[in-house]
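hi! just following up on the protien thing from before. the input was this:
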Amino acid sequence: MLRLKTIAALIGLTLAITTPAAAQIIDYSRFEKAKRIGDQLSGTQLRQLQSDLSWNTGYNSLTNFPLWGSFDEATFVAIRNFQSHNLRSLNVKSFEENSIPSPELIKLARTKAAKQKALLDFRTASAQGMTIDYPASLLPDREDTPTGLRLHAPRWDMSVELQAFSAGDMPFEARFEALKATPEMTRIVQAKLFKARAGRNPTYFVLFGTKDSLGFYARFIKGADGSTRGMIIRWNADTGKDTTQMVEMFEAYDAFGVMLGSLRLDDDDSGSAAEAPLSEAADLRANRQLCGQAKAADDIVKACSDVLVVGDLLLPQTLAETRSNRGWGFYLKGDYDKAIADYNEAIALRQDDDLPFSGRGYARFAKGDNAQAIADFDQALRLKPARTELLSYRASAALKLGRLQESVDNITSVVAGGKAVTPDYLNRGVALLELGRKDEATADLSRAIDLASNDLAADPAKNAYSLMYRAMAKAYGNDPDGAIADATRFLSSTPQSPEAFHARGLANAVKQNYDAAIADYTKAIDLGRKSFILRQRGDAYLASGQPDLAATDYLAMLHQFPTNPLAASGLEKAKQAVIQKFGTNNPPASDPNASGQGTPSTQKLAQAPAAMGKRIALIIGNGAYTGTSPLPNPKRDAARLAETFRSIGFTDVTLLEDLDNQGFNRALQEFSDKASQADWAVVYYAGHGMEVDNVNYLIPVDAKLKSDRDILFEAVPLDRVMAAGEGAKSLRLVILDACRNNPFEGAMTKKTATRSVTRGLSRVEPDGASLVVYAAKAGQVALDGDSGNSPFVTALDTNLRKPNVEIGKLFRLVRDDVMKATDRQQEPFTYGSLPGEDFFFNQGK
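and the predicted 3d structure came back as:
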């Protein structure tokens, strides 16, 4: 029986350590009644009750400890939990008595806590102007430290440290931030700084997190002299301990509440301070309901703000929910900075809720901070993958960043889920046009027009913005007259719409009314329109015989989107037109106010990207292995890099997926023919790779590799891959994201006693102007990552898109990014050497 009870208790312990507490359902009318009785207790009596409840599983998580000396939500819930476990002893007769701190409950909690304290030999420890009570039987080792005192349980790796730091050493708030960055935590469950309130508790912070099976909890109080004093508790929740150790661990977990509750500063008298008046909590129930259910932005903000007046009394999850709700109110009001501040507070309290992350993403998206918005949407989707509506926002943000294929992929997922709406089809159509995939774009734009028309027919007033969507889709979809009619109609009711001027500008350009197009584009830009409009106005300038102004817009566009191929192509055309028109690369100065943009300087044109010759790439992603478990990332990695190589000007990019042995060799042969006519030849491979007898092999998806001899017939030697690019005139590059943990190694039978089989790839020494780049250096294993792409591809893609980064530095930057992302577990490595000539993937601007 003891063993079964201990295991059940330990399961509860593990859950409490690894996950935040689930949201408690609070009846605020009963909370107010219980608070009236609880407030009649003195601060000392209430602290004693809170401490006693800690011994009786009243607080079910380290994030739920109470505001000591104050009757708060955590205390209310703890009493309710205690009563539910002791109904027979307490003889609670009516529902109304639930959660009331009655004399019988206080006495029973005191009795049960006293028994456990005596069993664990509770004593007092003091150091550096603070004192705690602790279980000497569980923490027998005691030693002084430079900053305070350390109590330790050597048998099962648990310690409690009292630490004190002067105000001059580091300000209290800075100490909080420093501890949040400690490497002792990889996951923060709660990080909250509570400000002092007049006549009540002092300023303090709580920090709770984990790293694998290790737990970390810190609680520090700000002293009257500005010092930082408190405790850090560390423990190991590894369940591989014997039964006795497990029992002790659980007992020690109960002791946390007592130790935390007993922490007191010698110069602190807040424990006997007067409680906040009940009036502060009297309308809590109504305000909590209004905070979560109101529709009007002002009502949401006011109700949530009224709840936050008594924020110190709330459970962390209640406080996080209230902050998140008020953030939504501020978002609706258009006060995005305040919304983000509230969402930051909510996230600091709870990292397991998708709503604060998505809300902050919406606010950042509205501010134009698209990269940060994508990061928030990604986190929200990790927590709740079913929220496909976030993919629509993510796609729009990616489109605005020029991440075209990423945007297309996101919207394709939304369409597959049957939840796509007009702007989804419009955005995907625009992205496909920018990628040069006009036929695919036409279908999406037609669908957007149909959906917008249906919405307008159903309810023109409610769906007024659908007129704008339809105008834009018609403009991109080669219906210029319809687009002009819709845009002009929309402007009659919304005269300052940058989107409408943009749509009409596109339509006028299609009709070759370039002066009108330029005027509309300029108005849209003046009203704040961004995206691809600078390149489009550049096209209109170029077509109307103003290449100098066109070059200015192309350069500005490339400054925002360094990898946009249409802007780079337009700039080359503008440079040639400038020479033809003016007989020089340096056009005469013109009126800088004529177009709202000015003209390019001599220096800017001189620094425009030079031609880089014919550059080709073969991109292979092998994931669907039949002889072992499939790999999830290679095809995604390959698709992402293929889009990147296209966007930075590679003239021929071949993307192939899941190649078997025959297909792999055929692809190399075809690429070899192309390479003989190219200046650059790049091969990227993602999939399994291994080394046998100092020879590196890439593994086709149909390989079985039942024995070491099979490698000769079923795999592709790296030398063959390198040879495929030998014909290129200037640069040969092979990039291998193929050092993943080798699943064939354990099952492969060794038919040759001296043959060496390893899981990674061995170093290589390429000749001439050739490089071989490993995602992980020889002998290491490359990680797949958990963000949809491998850490190596994420870093490579980011740096390929940066303009004017020489190839040697580029791969050093990739190395640094991967080392940081993998906590130095994976180090990319480059083999080979290049001549003195500089090589740039992306000359951008």
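Residues 1-24, 270-282, 590-611, 751-759 have pLDDT under 50 and may be disordered.
The longest helix spans residues 438-458.
cheers
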